[in-house]
Design goal:
21 helices; about 65% helix; 3-stranded antiparallel sheet; single chain
Length: about 425
Amino acid sequence: MDRNTSGIFLKNFLIKIRTRCRVPFDKLIRSAKFILHRGSFLRKINFALLCLWAGFYGLFFLPSCADTSPGYLLEVNGQKLPTEAFVQKFKKSTEYQQSKTISETQVRNFIETNFMNQLLFQAEGFRLKLDKDSSVIRELNQRKREILIRPDGVLYQSIIPEKILVKDTELQEFYDLQKFDIKTEIKDSLTEKIRQVKINQFLQSYTRGLYETYHVTFSETTIPLILNSYRENEDERQLVARGLKQAEFNSNIVTFDGGRWSVQDLMSEYNKKPAEQQPPLQIKEDVIDFARKAIIPDLLYLDALNRSLDLDKKFFTEIERLKKQHVRKACRYLLIDSKIIVSDTELQTYYESEKARFLNSASNFIQDSLRNELRIQRKKELIEEVTHRLRQYYNIRFNSAAVRAVVDRLNNEKLT
């Protein structure tokens, strides 16, 4: 084996170890390359020992790097396909529903068709550090906020008591107040209605407490700016910024611990609301009431962070899933969508070959239709080309033990 051949062998071997075990061997690879081309005799002797060490490393250690956890069916450079994600999608497929028994081949083929491409782009996205991209971070931060404060999110679960008791006296009072006929309303149903009323009352009390907890303050000097900007006619209500100076536009109308809203923020929030959610803003109290409601998501988010709910295990799992999704999407755009360009020359050539289809169509419709067809074709070609390249680059490993286990599980479920 000559110097170049041995160098290529060692480099490829170390890359395989790195991609399977995620050990940082980049410096080792660069050092080996330097020794081969510029090293002294003694260094070359050491390099030979290094090759020998690498062989023993691969023989004894590399097999132990494989993750055989039953929770994953496929691994591509550290990116894994959760077993439950596969099961959930596979059970919805026609193939699963029409098969009397499930085979390992079926499972592997389904993974190849439905998940392999995703994991390859996901692995490449993280290699390109797209998880650090500003647009990905911005989208994740927005989703993080939504997940924390949504009605069924971790904040809701942490503030609502696990058990809300409904006494018989409360049930009777509810009967009397609502004038329900006991014969037509069962007790469990009414109990749940009362429980929901209590939850709503608790949430209202909690939300009101946030204004005090975070020291919400409204500016008496900027509220008139909103009142003077208010316009209303038969068709719409809106806040018009015409006549406002930039300093007034940027001035605070409400402040609180950890945040602020400017006149611009409030005007933007009001104008994007649908008509039925735009109250008239004719007096100071109208503006304050609208602003109080507008900042509730900010206060909820602050409270969730102060409660360290962003460290919650379920929340972390969901955010990690979304991060992978956004990284995959960003990678697809970078390697596929951004590369799809249809020139006027290509469009004209394609039109000449297809014009018989469009004899009675408008020219602008023809151009749009053909350009879209060309983009679809180009996208399909690029996906195949990039996917093939990524398959050559990354180590792809099926978790055979987990595949067998999920096949047994699916077949047992079909028997029951």
